[in-house]
Amino acid sequence: MPRGNDPGQGGPHASAGALATWFARTGRALPWRRPPAPGPGPHGWGVLVSEFMLQQTPVDRVIPAWTAWMDRWPQPTDLAADSPAEAIRAWGRLGYPRRAKRLHEASVVIVERHDGLVPDVHEHLLALPGVGEYTAGAVRAFAYGQPGLALDTNVRRVLARHDRGLPDALGSVTVEERRRAAELMPPADGEGAAWMAALMELGALVCTSRSPRCDACPIADSCAWLALGRPAGEARRRQAAYDGSDRQARGALLAVLRASDAPVTQRALDLAWPDAIQRARALDGLVADGLVVPAARGRWSLPA
DNA sequence: AAATCGTGGCC
DNA sequence: TGGCCAAGATT
After folding, report:
1. Residues A171 and A118 in one domain
2. A248 closest-nt by C1' vs CA
3. A214 with A253, same domain?
């Protein structure tokens, strides 16, 4: 019986070997990246924190924030014992501060329902605030070595190109993408998780969105997209303008709250954003998200 | 299911 | 310079 995961041999797991070799040699030593261990265990927390921070924030900006975070709250119980306000402050300018609030909420659930250890059961992970399909699969794979599917933007792009000859995977993850990824994942114990990590790293370092370096790609030989001459695809939806947006307004207001230990006056918020209508809308949104709460004497504060 | 949600760096 | 992109989740 041929093993089927040697490069150039064909079959569903072709090129897995070349990819693994490349990852072992080229993969970055990111601080949250450690050999997986069967869980649930204390090592799950660092991975969970990293995945929250990496939801739409680049690795380079996450590294220092992750280090400081883990230094301050080494386990879920440490974060759960602190206030959401402190989590939101420590989040700083990583963006999307709801993630900080949800990570704090998740730590509380982990303490109350999972003995203070990040769970390794998919449904339990999915039930945590701020954890979706991707993050649940990533924790299972990267923390616990399970064959969890972690179809992030990198993995989806690599598979779209290599497997389907498409320039990228647009829209949300499809059933067919999941089916195919599960089919391609090496079946051997523990190899699925390593494969996910390698694919993701390949998308981050080589098979990038803008200028893919196919000359440095370990699986270029079998890449359908390269064989087709790297055809271009349709453009994505344009991102909404940020300048002058409600998001910028929310950011400006929250920055004031983060910088103050005491509740801030309405006046202080007025100074942070000129347009009164938009300011009110932004504040409403922040309150609805639980990121800001009314305090005494008409002031505002982060959630205690 | 399309829109919303921060921030910064790169070409 | 400004559009594009970045380990998504939620409603």
Report:
1. no
2. B6
3. no
